[in-house]
Design brief:
mainly alpha; single chain
Length: about 290
Amino acid sequence: MQEKVEFKKVRDFGQVINDTFSFIRQNLKPLIKTYFIFCGLFVLAGMLSMLMQQYKAVNLVNSIGNGSTRNLGFGAQFGVEYFLALLFSLASYASMSVAILSYITLYVQKGNQIPTNDEVWAYFKYYFFRVFSSSILLILMLTVAFLFCLIPGFYLFPFVAMMLPIMVIENGTLGYSFGRSFKIIKDNFWVTFGTLIVVWIIIYACMSFIVLPTTLLSMMGLFSQKTPHMSLTFSMITTILQSLCQVFTIIPIVTITLSYFSLVEQKESTGLMERIAHFGKTEKPIDTRPEEY
């Protein structure tokens, strides 16, 4: 039987990526269950919003192909369903981040034991709105940074990604998490940046592989006729597949969490100190979950 992944240890680039997939393989069923329980509603709402937006976009393209210019206004392209899709997409990612980070935090606290749904829920309801509201500000900051020649955005990317694990694992505020991320990534920027980039490339490759057939069929229909015409069926199927593929983003969340523990262990040796403190003892570490009131 494969040994369970230990989070509190120093890892290099390859070990972080290897242990990411090892942890997911060992905890695949409970992770997927956690994902659908705590994120399913947001994913479904986002999917419906994107389907409505896609329906409008297809009709708009087809009306242009038929020579109609009645529906070319701002409202036709960016209606309420467009902004709902953005809102629910953000809520989906925030809920997924909180759910998976809560799962991992409890997993570590319980000595590599799978947490219950009630335990994850206690964390989830405590951190969701903090992470959701913080995510809005962080995305705006990254958007502005990417507008300035891309370089500032790429530079801030690993620091912003590291903030979410800090918020949940250390119960940090937005300001604390921002400063803490710079502190622990200092001197390890390129390793952290490269790890995240490689994992995201893998994720986008997996997603593209799944949605590519319907996307190609839709594009073939668009350019194979004399006038632009999109297939509503293929467009809807592509949108549904894209929504379902969000489950792959569990992978980079696990990766950045492993990177967090590795960097903290490298700088502060917290895991080593805990093992020394508990040497010869059989009891589990004290539960430090936030209290409920």
